Amino acid sequence: MDRMDRRKDVNVFIPLKPQRLSEEVYRQLKEAILGGRYKPGDRLPSEKAFCETFGVGRPVVREALRSLENSGLISVRPGAGGGAFVQKIASSTLADTFEGIMKMDNVSLEELTEARLALEMGALPLVLKHINTEHLDELERNLKEVRENLARGIRGKRNLGFHVLLIKASGNELLSKIGEALMALMGSLLEEYEYSVERSRKVLKIHEQLIHLLRTKQYAEATQVLEAHINDTFHLFRRHRSNDRSGRKKTAEGSRTGNY
């Protein structure tokens, strides 16, 4: 190989950068948690113990613990009896991530609904395979809460909760977490929309119909009803967007919350 070829090879590579100590501490602790060395509810060793174990100072350990906390893997409790405790990754952490993506990348509510449609319809075969009486009873309890809220004039998000329960019936934990996060995000984004009792009652009837179809194993009909129900949300968002562009006030017809 001549000198020119060697020079070309060298130019392909990038000089190595020294890794920050806190990143290595974070990586090892994360692997220990995800590998099952520490389980949800376990208290991690003290900062002092980690300093001695890794041979680093407290600022390095604290930065690594902050990264773990931001990742949702631990919670840090102050005071006597406090410390760093391992926790399950909550769907709220995922919802925050989704919200950041939506706002930074200008993702629309219509695109969020498209993602929801893909998730729910994609999960439906698993739901139909695994759904049982216990799942259906839980869905019925959700409808009871919705009826009570309507009777009291309480604005709530239990109609979205119905869809969370439906996805959970798939038996797939990852799908359930994603579904819960998507519905939580949709619920928070819809807070600024006007509430419609009429729309909420309409959705309640659709959910009642879905439960009936699932109980009687009319799965083809249930699939059609669910898809049409989610697609109906697109029309509401489009009407609302049209009203906003024309400078008109959001109307009850185009502005809903907690009714999807």
Q: CATH superfamily membership of the largest domain, which one? A: GntR ligand-binding domain-like
Whole-number tally of structural domains: 2
End-to-end CA span: 67 Å
Coarse structural class: mainly alpha
Q: Can you tell me the CATH architecture of the largest domain?
A: Up-down Bundle
Q: How many β-strand runs?
A: 2
Low-confidence segments? 247-258
Tell me which oligomeric state these chains represent. Answer: single chain
> How much helical structure, as a percent, in the residues?
55-70%
Number of helices: 11
Strand content: under 5%
Main sheet: strands, sense, barrel: 2 strands, antiparallel
What descriptive keywords fit this protein?
single chain; 260 residues; mainly alpha; Arc Repressor Mutant, subunit A; Four Helix Bundle (Hemerythrin (Met), subunit A); two-stranded antiparallel sheet; disordered C terminus
Question: What does it look like?
Answer:
The protein has 260 residues and is mainly alpha-helical. The chain contains eleven helices and two strands; from the N terminus they run ααααββααααααα. Strands 1-2 form a two-stranded antiparallel ribbon. Strand 1 and strand 2 (83-86) form a beta hairpin. The longest helix is centred in the last third of the chain and has 27 residues, at 219-245. It is elongated, with a radius of gyration of 25 Å. It starts with a helix and ends in a 15-residue tail after the last helix.
